[in-house]
Structures are given as C-alpha cells and as structure tokens.
Write a structure and sequence with these properties.
two-stranded antiparallel ribbon, 77% helix, mainly alpha, globular
C-alpha cells in the first residue's frame, strides 16, 4: 500500500508542474500573435486615445512576465479574459463548449473500445486463421483512415444519400431528446473512434496472444475449466493492462481529433470556438480554448496513469 501511495503521490506532485509548463508555453506562443488585443476588443472605430486607454487599463503595456503572472492569478480564479467588442467572457464560452467536446470524445472512446475489444479477442482466439487475417486487414485500414476523411464519407452516405442521420443543425439535449442527440452525435463519434479502434485492436490482440501462451492458461484448461471461462475471467483481465496505457495516450488523439470533427459537423464545441477566435481575430479566445484543451489532456492522462497503477499489481512493487 505504501508503494501504491508513493506512486500516486508522484503523479499528483507532477500535475501542477505540468500545468504550469503548459500555461507558460501557450501564453508565450500567443504573445507572438500580431493581433492587437485592444484593437480586437474595441473594434475598427476605436480612436488612438481609446486604444491607449484600454492598454493602460488592462496592463498591456506592462512587461511580458508581469502580464503572465497576472494571467496565472486570474486563471486560478476562473478568469481566462474576455474577447470581442462586448467583452464576452472566455470562461463562459469554454464552459459551454468543453462539455460538448468531452461528450464527443467519450462517445468516440466507447465506440473505439467496444470495437477493439471484440475484434482483438476474436483475432487472438483465431490466431493465424482467416478471422485473424481479416481483422488484421480491417484494423490496418482503420489505422490508415483519417478521421476527417471518414467524416466526409459518412456525411455523403448517411446524410446526403440515405438521409438517415443529420450532419448539421442544433445538438438536441440528451435528457429531453435522447434519440435526436444520439443521431446527431453518431457520425462524428464514429469517425473519431474508428482510427483509435484499429490501433487498440492490434494492441489487444498482441496482449491476448501473450496471455494465452502462458502456463496458467494451459493448466486451467487441462484441469477441466472451460476455455471461455478462463478467457473471460483471467486472460482478458490480464491482457487489458497494457491497452489501458495505450488508451491513455489515445485520449489525447481523441480530444485533438474532436476539435477537427466538430468543425466538419458544425458542433458548438472547442473546435468551433477556436475557429471563431481565429476568424474574429480574438487571441484571448484562442489562448483560453487551447489552454483548456491542453490542461484537459494532462488531467485525463494523469487519471489514466493512476488507474494503470491501481489495476496492475506488479507496478506497485517497483
């Protein structure tokens, strides 16, 4: 137990350090933006006196390191700044956009895991036979398929041709209209999850094959325990330890891919917020959204890392 707590403690200590590093990197890179924050906030009709007054009031004339320190203090208080002529809160924008991105990421993750577990287990059980070969080809195709290209194909097939699923429009509420919500999220989530499913299928297949070749499996089957019971209770559980680590890395891919998929399907998530910031010349909005996505990725990976420690007894003794 002491080793387990020590390993978890190391991850928790590393979390604020990584968050500080990410905030510094994002703020530093955004400082090179040629867009004048005062001009972006006040609009084209602002006079030079108004621009100078805005810069003085918001500390834009201060040294960069002081501005960064002020940004950190405000961020810790939940303030990511404002954007636009109406001084719209970046925090409020992120609060409405982030849940949609996380929902899309979660559904895509579920699709990827279900496909990968089923195909990976079947591929391992029928090793070197035709199901294994067919699944291997399918997984390679999935890995080689870009999410955005698959998204376009899905729109052409299920929306433009068959008229089965909507490719645009408002996102219905899951509580009030679950069928409409799932229909709206089906294509973007599937396009997001398929490439990850192909990668996880190969990892699960390899881990399953390694477990099936171990002595305890042959001993259990030789003792009369049904193979299906051994696979379900022991082999699959032990084999999923390695894919959990890979899945943690793939979550970052899913979050980044969701930002692109949202633009294709016109979902009001973090991707559309970034596009709005770029098109409207709102550097504070782009900075706030980018920073939130990066911090979300860090936190999720820390959680997955801790989960890996909990489910893998061997690493606790390291």
């Amino acid at each position: 137990m002491s080793n387990l707590l020590r390993l978890i403690g190391k991850r928790l200590v590393a979390l604020p350090i990584m968050i500080l590093g990410v905030t510094f990197l994002v703020y530093f890179l955004m400082s090179f933006s040629p867009i004048d924050t005062a001009y972006s906030a006040l609009g084209e009709g602002a006079t030079q006196e108004q621009l100078d007054a805005y810069r003085a009031a918001n500390g834009l004339n201060d040294p960069w390191i002081i501005q960064y320190g002020r940004f950190l203090v405000n961020m810790c208080q939940g303030d990511l700044g404002t954007y636009g002529a109406g001084s719209i809160s970046v925090t409020d924008k992120v609060a409405t956009a982030l849940p949609i991105t996380l929902q899309l990421t979660f559904i895509g993750l579920i699709i990827a895991v279900v496909i990968a577990v089923v195909l990976g287990v079947v591929s391992a059980l029928y090793r070197d036979r035709w199901p294994d070969q067919a699944i291997r080809v399918f997984s390679i195709i999935c890995i080689a398929t870009p999410s955005f290209w698959l998204a376009v194909l899905l729109i052409l097939l299920f929306s433009s041709t068959l008229h089965m699923l909507p490719a645009a429009g408002d996102l219905p509420s899951l509580a009030s209209n679950p069928s409409g919500y799932l229909a709206r999220m089906a294509m973007p989530a599937f396009a997001l999850g398929v490439p990850v499913a192909g990668q996880l299928t190969r990892v699960i297949r390899t881990a399953m094959v390694e477990e099936l070749d171990k002595d305890y499996v042959r001993t259990a089957i030789g003792a009369g325990v049904p193979k299906s019971v051994v696979v379900a209770r022991n082999v699959l559980r032990n084999a999923l330890i390695t894919p959990v680590t890979v899945l943690g890395l793939r979550i970052g891919y899913l979050i980044g891919g969701a930002v692109v998929i949202e633009v294709i399907f016109n979902l009001p998530g973090m991707g559309m917020a970034i596009v709005q910031g770029v098109q409207g010349n709102y550097p504070t909005l782009v900075q706030g959204v980018t920073l939130t996505v990066a911090l979300t990725f860090i936190v999720i990976n820390i959680v997955v890392d801790m989960l890996y420690i909990l489910i893998n007894p061997r690493i606790r003794t390291v």
